[in-house]
Design a protein that fits this description.
Strand order of the largest sheet: 1-2-3-5-4
Number of strands: 7
Radius of gyration: 33 Å
Number of helices: 10
Strand content: 15-25%
Number of domains: 3
Shape: rod-shaped
Order of helices and strands: EEEHHEEHHHHHHEEHH
Length: about 260
């Protein structure tokens, strides 16, 4: 709870408010009851649900620190319904149409009266503006922190996608592990076979499927091998393209361990 008290004036009566961490307004129960001509706050608080009231520390007119009851916006409406004072509806309209919209829009309320000078109004407006700027700066700082955290991954992904370099499936497994994806080479082969990116049997086992080739995820490296007896064979090795590396990192990032093992 933010203990910074804001004081508003309703027909000469003081209404103290504060906001919680989510920016939602709370009202000092004693002030509300005084305006609405209601009785004992200690007894009245029993009518509220647990999420409609709380307590906070305030400083009274002679500098003493005291605990006082506060109520939420729904609690305020419930309290208004108990009042038989003619001004109750006017008070509720003032809160809902003037106080709350300005608190939520600017972080503060600028009450004015005919006796206020332009300097008084300007001074209060400056305080509200400073508070709003502080909140906006905090939001910007949090966003910048998030951008800094994501930037290395974004640079890596862009570089991989633009690269013509291919890698072995085992090297892809290492990249996935560096990105927080718990998978080794053998498990990755099983997963790629289970999901239809690599062949499952015969001469096509661990070779890219037609679908994977059409997606541009793999290339096949063919190497001529000359044996001791002089005959030659061709060795075929699947290589993951730059596009494929980014594709699989994006696909498997955030997957839980059991999901990866599903392809075993």
């Amino acid at each position: 709870m933010n203990n910074e008290i804001q004081r508003f004036d309703f027909r000469g009566a003081s209404l103290r408010t504060l906001t919680d961490e989510a920016g939602e307004p709370w009202f000092v129960l004693k002030d509300c009851m005084s305006i609405l001509d209601l009785g004992n706050p200690t007894e009245t608080v029993k009518m509220f649900d647990k999420d409609e009231f709380s307590t906070t520390e305030v400083i009274d007119s002679i500098g003493r620190r005291q605990q006082t009851y506060i109520i939420s916006e729904p609690g305020l409406y419930r309290l208004v319904m108990k009042s038989r004072k003619p001004e109750a509806k006017e008070f509720q309209r003032w809160v809902t149409h003037e106080v709350l919209p300005q608190i939520r829009r600017t972080g503060g309320y600028i009450p004015t009266s005919e006796s206020d000078s332009d300097e008084d109004i300007m001074a209060r407006a400056v305080l509200v503006a400073q508070k709003t700027i502080k909140q906006k700066n905090q939001q910007i700082a949090e966003q910048q922190t998030r951008i800094v955290e994501l930037e290395p991954k974004a640079r890596f992904a862009d570089a991989v996608a633009a690269s013509d370099d291919t890698c072995l499936v085992g090297e892809l497994a290492k990249m996935l592990l560096q990105n927080g994806i718990p998978v080794g080479q053998n498990r990755l082969f099983r997963l790629l076979r289970a999901e239809g990116y690599l062949g499952k049997s015969g001469s096509n086992r661990n070779m890219p499927t037609q679908r994977a080739m059409e997606l541009g995820l793999f290339r096949i490296k063919e190497t001529a091998v000359t044996h001791a007896d002089g005959h030659t064979t061709v060795s075929r090795t699947p290589k993951v393209t730059g596009k494929g590396q980014r594709y699989f990192i994006d696909r498997y990032r955030g997957r839980a361990q059991p999901s990866l093992e599903a392809g075993a």
